[in-house]
Amino acid sequence: MLRDIRSPRYSGLVDKQGFTRIDELAKQIEVLINKKDFEEAADMELTMMQALVKEMPGVDVYNFIARTNVSSVPMVKRYLAMEDEVQWSFLNNDIYESLSGDLLKSVTKRVEFLLNNTGIKVIVYNGALDFLVNTAGTRLWMEHLKWKSKDKWKESAQEPFSVNSFTEGYVKKADNLLLYVVFRAGHSVRVPIDNMMAFREMLMQELVYSEMLTSILNK
């Protein structure tokens, strides 16, 4: 998914000089991707992420308002109901490195195929506080999808979705494409941890209630 590296500048987390350094690395990554040198691009992206961390000491890239820079391991373990003595890592480096050649390969064509040729519901969700795959980049990627309802998508307005009378985010829909922007939540795996009520509501609305309604209508 497209990452909008302008986010740190727009949120005021880096100064102009820091943004210029990060932007130059992003341009190099784009060149490598266009050359289909995906492993080198992944290495360069890691360099860019290290530069981001250096430019923003103390900022958790998984949720940029979190108070730690270690991915909140204790909170994750509580969410997964793990005992304290269980050893757990947020990222397996061996697996990550073995997939390095695939990390920056686009899946846009596959998503477009599903949207154009099937009735499969494509649900995209983004935590509003996600720094790695920020909402601005996600919206930009979705705006450029080439599919039969592209004009309908652009014209459709996002609507707030609420849980217990509190607005927990926005939802934008057009046919079988949906975008949920979840407030008070960070990176994809953090959304159900940071805002469980919103995540549960999204699943209930789009999977459980939707399946129940379809079943009733088909009887």
UniProtKB/TrEMBL annotation:
<protein>
    <submittedName>
        <fullName>Uncharacterized protein</fullName>
    </submittedName>
</protein>
<dbReference type="GO" id="GO:0006508">
    <property type="term" value="P:proteolysis"/>
</dbReference>
<dbReference type="InterPro" id="IPR029058">
    <property type="entry name" value="AB_hydrolase_fold"/>
</dbReference>
<comment type="similarity">
    <text>Belongs to the peptidase S10 family.</text>
</comment>
<dbReference type="Pfam" id="PF00450">
    <property type="entry name" value="Peptidase_S10"/>
</dbReference>
<dbReference type="GO" id="GO:0004185">
    <property type="term" value="F:serine-type carboxypeptidase activity"/>
</dbReference>
<dbReference type="InterPro" id="IPR001563">
    <property type="entry name" value="Peptidase_S10"/>
</dbReference>
